[in-house]
């Protein structure tokens, strides 16, 4: 396209965005602040139970509600995986321990934490994570090895605990083969 035509299109688009911003956000915010300052003076003289809400209070409340909805939406979107899963090139060869008792620590570290180790057939990217019974653990990747701290609550109940590796990309999630640790009563 012609650069002059692009400049005209960009200016028109910027003007439309500026007009929308002025009409929907800036001007109402200025009017709200003026009305709030005017009402505040009369509000200070009135008894507490007779003080009116300033005009536009619903706008401020709506912004707080919107911020809460965005925060909850962000948290939910991080828990729900909508990206396609593809098989990871790296596979789990060995892991430890295979079996433990409910409530007992595994591979106890000097600080008292439990740890899990997995031997792999190749070295995965550094952002690869261990998923233990559906929960992503803080993982450390080494040469054909990956380790992670395991919270005690994940070891508190008996049953088979599925373990796999996950690597998130922008367009997909790579998942390794699954192994299972048994927790006995």
Structure, explained:
The protein has 185 residues and is of the alpha+beta class. The protein has 2 helices and 11 strands, in the order ααβββββββββββ. Strands 1, 3, 5, 6, 9, 10 and 11 form a 7-stranded mixed β-sheet that branches. Strands 2-4-8-7 form a 4-stranded antiparallel β-sheet, with no helix packed on it. Strand 7 and strand 8 (145-150) form a beta hairpin. The longest helix is centred in the first third of the chain and has 43 residues, at 3-45.
Order of helices and strands: HHEEEEEEEEEEE
Assign the structural class, choosing from mainly alpha, mainly beta, alpha/beta, alpha+beta, or little secondary structure.
alpha+beta
What is the CA-CA span between the terminal residues? 72 Å
Q: What's the β-strand tally?
A: 11
Lay out the secondary structure:
Layout: H1 3-45, H2 57-79, E1 85-87, E2 92-96, E3 99-101, E4 114-120, E5 129-132, E6 135-137, E7 139-142, E8 145-150, E9 159-168, E10 173-175, E11 179-184
Parallel strand pairs: 1-10, 3-11
Antiparallel strand pairs: 2-4, 4-8, 5-6, 5-9, 7-8, 9-10, 9-11
Q: What structural keywords apply?
A:
185 residues; alpha+beta; 7-stranded mixed β-sheet; 4-stranded antiparallel β-sheet
Task: Compose a concise summary of this entry.
By secondary structure, this protein is α+β, with helices and mostly antiparallel strands. It is built from 2 helices and 11 strands; from the N terminus they run ααβββββββββββ.
